[in-house]
Structures are given as C-alpha cells and as structure tokens.
C-alpha cells in the first residue's frame, strides 16, 4: 500500500551530522532504501531549527536544510522527486516517491513575510507555526503564557492561504489553535494524537479534533511513545487506539500518520524505523477494511492537499 508520512526530522539529523548518507545510514529511522522497500509514496521532510541556534542565524540554518534536502536527499536518490502540490504527487510515476518540504516552527522567518515567501518559493508546502515555545507568530504549547496568534501570525496564515499551503497546528498553544481555526483555509495537525487516549500536552482535545474535521483538516497520528501511551512506552496497539478514537469522533476521512521519525530518541515497539509501516499495515487490516486502511495511509492526506485546479483529478 502507498504511504504518505506527514512528518519527519531527517533534515535536522543530517544537518547535525554531515557524514550521514541518506541512502542507508543506520543513524536514520528513514532512509532512501527503506522508502523504496516499504511502499512510501510521499514523505514529508521538516525544516526544524534547534533552540540553540542564535536568532540571527536561524534563516540561514533553514536555507542550509533546504540545500540538504535538494543536494543530499533528492539528488542522489533517483526515484525521489521533490513535490509541492497535489498535482505533482498525482503525476508521479508508479515507482517514484514524492519528497514534500515542510517548516516546523516559524522561528526561521523572524518577523519577515519575505523570508516566509522565500521558503515557500524554495518548495516549503506546509508550515507549522511554532515548536513548543513562543516566537513572533504565536506561543507554542509549552509556553506558560499560552498566547494566541499575533497580528504578524495572522498575516503569516493568510500568506499560507494565498500560497495554497497547509497551516500546521502541531506544537501550537490552545489559544493559537483556535485563532488558526478562524483564519486558516487549510489547517492540519501533522503529528499529534488524542489527549483522551494519552494525556500529553502535545495531543489534541476532543473539541480540537472535531474542529479540524469540521474545517476539513487532517490529523497525523504520530509514533512518539510519550504521545501514544501514559505508560511512557508504546506499541502498535496504542497507535490503533488513537486511530479508533479519532474515527469515533467522525475522523475516518481526516486521519493519517505523521511518524516524527528522526525527531525522536525512543521509538514505539514495532515501529523502530520506516520499515515498521509494514507491520502497522498488517495490524490495521485486522481492524479495518482495505479501503479504510488505504485512506489512513495515503488517500486522506492527498484528498486534503490544497488544489490549484478545482476539483483535482484523482
């Protein structure tokens, strides 16, 4: 089955360690060889600027990760093609894999719409507004103040609307989430789970899940053990519990997966790397029909990509 994975931190790992070879490095949860072997059709690659990077260097760091994306991920991988739109993905040949560039947190753009526009022109097609803390756009979920979108933040979201790209609410404060629901045309939560199943601040409350569904958004269930289970360790069964719960709230057509591979140090049992998707698929088929599993793995995210030609052909 085809797989659309909505979040990974491969670029961050490769930026931290220039010796990493994307083809088959054992230091990575996701490699080119694993993508080819495991049915990947679209893999998202996030630009994440670590906290220790000084503010004046953050945009340059983002550009360095864009260069890694094109030079060290795409260029040496014959079947991997950079994609920006639904049309690009639907145009992929049978054995080709789409590589989708995203931004995790707007720290890199400071207070500059031009910097945001530049990253979008370089291929960024989904933008998370914050990591866990505050920036000029909004507060993250870890910021005690819990503020919402700034005036600049609303301008950023409106820029996403004009560019026909996703606004990602994962990591965002609760107030920021609701502000986004008022402004964004294309909201998603690329890597967030259900707080009713696992009580972690990064997970979504029931009313947030319902709001994303009503706004025709998407939720990517993530494989971070701490977001899956209150026990601190997790298995594929816990992934299924979150999927079941989101579906019970009406989310069957609005849920997929955003692994957070290479952004985590601990992994879920059975999902230690991208190869684990094979095990997940077999488990899902015990609970859902083949058509439903295909939606969760791929079609739901594809259906919710903004489209220049309306309607897009499938």
TrEMBL record:
It holds the Pfam family Peptidase_M19. InterPro entries: Metal_Hydrolase (IPR032466), Pept_M19 (IPR008257). One of its GO terms (molecular function) is metallodipeptidase activity. It comes from the Bacteria. One of its GO terms (biological process) is proteolysis. PROSITE patterns: RENAL_DIPEPTIDASE_2. This is Membrane dipeptidase. Coiled coil: none annotated.
């Amino acid at each position: 089955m085809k797989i659309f994975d909505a979040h990974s931190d491969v670029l961050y790992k490769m930026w931290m360690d220039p010796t990493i070879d994307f083809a088959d490095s054992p230091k990575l949860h996701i490699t080119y060889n694993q993508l080819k072997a495991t049915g990947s059709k679209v893999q998202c690659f996030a630009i994440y600027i670590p906290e220790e990077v000084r503010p004046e260097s953050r945009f340059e760091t983002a550009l360095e990760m864009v260069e890694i994306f094109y030079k060290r991920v795409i260029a040496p991988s014959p079947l991997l093609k950079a994609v920006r739109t639904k049309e690009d993905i639907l145009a992929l040949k049978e054995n080709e894999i789409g590589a989708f560039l995203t931004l995790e947190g707007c720290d890199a753009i400071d207070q500059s719409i031009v910097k945001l526009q530049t990253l979008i022109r370089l291929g960024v097609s989904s933008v998370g507004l914050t990591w866990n803390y505050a920036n000029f756009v909004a507060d993250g979920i870890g910021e005690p103040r819990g503020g919402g979108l700034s005036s600049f933040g609303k301008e950023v979201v409106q820029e996403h609307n004009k560019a026909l790209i996703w606004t990602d609410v994962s990591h965002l404060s609760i107030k920021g989430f609701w502000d986004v629901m008022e402004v964004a045309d294309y909201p998603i939560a690329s890597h967030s789970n259900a707080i009713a199943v696992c009580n972690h601040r990064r997970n979504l409350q029931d009313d947030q899940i319902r709001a994303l569904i009503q706004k025709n958004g998407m939720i990517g269930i993530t494989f971070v053990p701490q977001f899956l289970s209150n026990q601190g360790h997790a298995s594929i069964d816990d992934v299924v519990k979150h999927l079941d719960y989101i579906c019970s709230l009406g989310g069957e057509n609005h849920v997929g997966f955003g692994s957070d591979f290479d952004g985590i140090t601990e992994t879920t049992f059975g999902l230690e790397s991208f190869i684990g998707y094979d095990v997940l698929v077999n488990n899902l088929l015990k609970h859902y029909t083949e058509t439903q599993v295909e939606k969760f793995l791929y079609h739901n995210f594809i259906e919710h990509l903004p489209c220049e030609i309306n309607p897009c052909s499938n």
